[in-house]
Amino acid sequence: MDKSTQTEIFFGPNHPGVPGNYGINYNFEGDTVTAAEANAGHLHRGFEKLMEERIWIKNTALVPRICVEEPDINEMVYAMGFEAIGEIEVPRRADYIRSIILELARIQGHIFSIGGNAAGIGQYTIMNWGTLTRDYILDIFEEITGARVYHIYIRPGGVRQDIEAETFAKILDLMNELENERFPDLEKTLFENPNAQKRWQGKAVITKEEAIEMGATGPVLRANGVPHDLRKMMPYAAYDDVEFEVPTGDNGDAWDRIKIARDDMLQSIKIIRQLINKIPDGPVQTDLGNGLKYRIPKGDAYVKIESKRGEYGYYMVSDGSLKPYRVHVRGASTPLGLYGVREYLPGTRIADVPVWAKSLGICPPEFDR
Amino acid sequence: MANDKKSIFSPVTAFKNLVKKPETVRYPAESNDAAKRYRGFHINDLEDCIGCSTCQEVCVNDAISMVEMLDVPAEEGQRSERPQIDYGRCCWCGLCVDVCTTGSLEMSRDYSYIEIDPDSFIVTPAEKDINQVDHPLGYLRDEHSDLLDLKRIDMEMLEPEERINSFIEIVEGFSKEQAEKEASRCVECEICTDTCPASMNIPQYIRGIFDDDLEESLEQIYEDNPLPEICGRVCTHTCEGVCAISHRGEAVSIRWLKRYAVDNVDSADYKKVLGTEKIEQNNKKVAVVGAGPAGLSAAHYLSVMGYQITVYDSKEKAGGMMRYGIPEYRLPYDALDKDINYIKSLGVDFVFNTRIGENITLDELHEQYDAVFAATGLHNGRSTRVPGTDNNNVYQAVNLLADIARGKEVPVTRNLVVIGGGNVAMDIARSMARIQMDKYGEVNITVTSLETEDIMPADQEEIEEAREEGIVFKPGRGPKEIEVNEDGTLAQLCTNCCVSVFDEEMNFSPTFDDSDIENYECDMVIEAIGQGGDNSYIDDQFEIEYAGPRIKINDYSQTSVDWLFAGGDIALGPDVITAIKTGHDAAVGIDMYLNDEL
Amino acid sequence: MRNEKELLELINVHLDPPAAEIKRKQNVSVSIKQENLIQALSFLKSHSYQHLSTISCVDWLDEGEFELVYHLFSYDDYINISLKTRIKREPGVFQTAKEIWPVAEFYERDIHEFFGVEFKGNDNLEEMILENWQHLPPMRKDFDTRKFVNDNYEWRDYNGQKHTD
Asked: Which residue in B1, B91, B142 is closest to A61 by CB distance?
């Protein structure tokens, strides 16, 4: 590489163009990136070691803080891992409530990240709309769980408290409002905007072979026409009881991925309506005894769910004591943020680097932990 | 891509928002109230709170410390500490509310607090939260989010029809799964240890059961109690009365867990587990008078310290009231012997059928031994002394119980009355019921006491089980006379209504209503109204200080005569565990005295 | 499209593992000796197990071993395989898997940083998350976090109360 024509810059970690505390050190020539390297580790808080020092129930308050945008996926996989090793059955009503929470989390996560993507191309109105719409969903979460962002609601054995009928009615009203007012507005303002289409079409292409080779899942893989979704492949919670489609794209570019995000939200609305319609009565928690003395036999499990960005999994090992022996967090964007940056970012123009980083859904806490 | 709509007028859609009301909340002109379940700042009912520190245990961020409150007394069942929360560390997860044993800790809907001084963010939540303003309640624990295990494992017991036919032990004991589940209910707050007269390491031995490490349990138990087989069956368990779980649920079955732990360690392993295989002797000798719980406890702890012990007892075997007072269906003899044999195996000598004051004097003991511990107990039954009590058919409960323990045949008639409302009355009534059932095929026993049932000193479980076995209760009656027939047999017990037992200063001063008469037909009366002791072997030879009817002792069980230590019922009552404590204190005291430190 | 039993048969026949079992629905766990692991990965990849989720490491301090677990998934069978192997803690050396999956380079870099395992053939094992770290690799079980904090930082006193730790 001819050093006299290359410039190296630090893009991030404190920059509105990157999704979170994450930096990309890249060399560019002219205005095209020629080599890139991830600058990760700014958000390292040592979760995995912290979890080994606390008893099982205490970790339910620690785990959601790994990911800000969608904290419920952490609570869900932690509980699923505990239940898998301990062979604990969860009541059916709790499964339904968990699915409702996860789908609401998916909607608010997607609308927030569509806002983030729009900010990456300079459309700050959409960013504000994204944050605003998310806020109404956070109000629903506040009513169900008692907190807006870190819910600490899904626990091993079920969920923490039941949902009342008025809250279900509010959720359905909000779904109607989203479907009839806000999403059509979003459609007209952003998706029919030729400027946005031009900025996103054909950019940040990841092909099907590249995605599978890397281990990328979720919208990144589905944008190439394959409908791989863990909710259909390895159903968990109540997803085997509902009908929904898995949206896909054709070209594997940023435009497809953002359209998939929008379609995912519409499917989630459908799923939530079905779940609220069919939810059975019953208890919401299996009795596991004294919370300070939760204990499961020796064993290990790798459990994963479909988060909004793809496969999100925990590998949990128990040695039969009161604390977890090892919890390994595998985020959906780990391969993209570390490996994908080096292999597939070179060749993009500088102005498209935020488009690349945000449309792939790189979430730094997933690999920094 | 081909069918994506596009229009350059699309952003115009956003302009409609110019004329709409803004969706942000104009704070503080508009208020933004939190939802009903919001997890806001904490409030704590300082009177309900017992300072168990379970909230501190579960806090993820170490945000809670327990601080001494000067205006809260440390009385039975609570500590004088209360939780203090550091809001710089708290994450408002609400786990402390879910685990609170009394339900005193709650959360309000308040979420806003603005102050320059960072130290003001550390507060002890009280009736009002950090803002000192009344706020509606927020997140509350309900039956789904409750993290405590409130229900006890039921103990298997024999049915009444089976029980009445023999003296077999009624309580069957826990299985391994039951014991582990019951042990998991403990939150290790140690309020039980505060209440136990012997300050036993209760959460520690319960944890040993939970970890399936019964040897650890045994070690922890023997630190303060050398008679666990006995206490695991008959202790008065005040610990269970103050257990933190008992506030919202059922107390942890501490007594049955202690029994499980010691039942499942083989006697042959005791010395190895407790580290007493080899004890260095110091060649000093101590005499113990009385082989009851106090004497056995002193003998055990002194032996472990290296002293040579000789225990004297006027009866034929060791055990005192535990063998000769408590019936076999409550405390089987092989359990009693397991504890006593371990103490014997430490090298303690026992001399039976020897009464101090008759066969050997206290003065002679003082010359032959370096120190003496007296724990002779209260073995003389008291009498109501109403007319008729001098008849041959009127007995003392303690004498009959002792004979039953020896295996001797006792007189039993078809129609019995027992006078008394304490555990001794229950013991004799239920023992005689079994003997009656065996001899006559039916139970015909009436128990009458001054106290009405709500203030009867006997354990509630004893009264209920006695009822199940066919015993009839007539509480609140005072005995007036025992009518005797011309041929010397008994006719009936005449009673009056007992209006009150204690006067305003809680002194024993019963009052009666002579117009209310009830008579109970009977041909045998047993009195179980209390016991007295015989300390003549001490008083005849030495000037010793008394505190009321009991010998006065200091914290080391030392009397006013410096080489003479006393314990058990003659110095401090009223139960086995207190006697054990006085024995342990005496061992420590004698050791200090013989090293010139007391 | 195989089910769990057929997959287990395939593995038992071709890989001869010391242990293989169906853990739970759609989950199979296989233990492999360390010298056969890379070959096993290659075999499974060519039999539709193309998705490598991640590589995990578990420190079994009392047994003196590290356990490396490779999580594979097939888009045909919909089954998860956890492929486990054990290496000695001293010297803590293993081969790289990046010839089969290039992305494994970064998973191994992470394990090197936090556990100290060296992967032969992977020359990109520099620090990634931590910065100028001079102590034991922190995820090891003999790294005491409380002691580290007490040795390197100072506690702040609040409200006149000294922090006791």
From this structure: B91
